[in-house]
Amino acid sequence: KQWYQRRVRVQELFRRDAMKRVLSGRNEETLQPILYFLEAHITNPRYCTVLCDLAHILASLYSPVLGMSPVIDKLFEKLNRRLKFELKVQERYMKLQGAMECFFTATGLS
Fold this sequence. Notes:
5 helices
């Protein structure tokens, strides 16, 4: 329930075009919790749509300052690795799904 309330608030910020304003101007200490949360939850299907949008905004806002904080750099790298891994998993899933459809079609089980 707690995440649902957060998600509604985040979606409302997107709806009002206020997300960039809310996320901009953060320092290392105020950016860390957001990046930790993203890295931990971005691949959860219930949250990924909102969190992918959030990650995109963060990347566009803070990419010019990458290299200035080793902690923030490391968190962005972890997020990037998590997303790359998830893309590989999804690609394998789609290949498996296609193979299963071919099998079911060939055996008349579809």
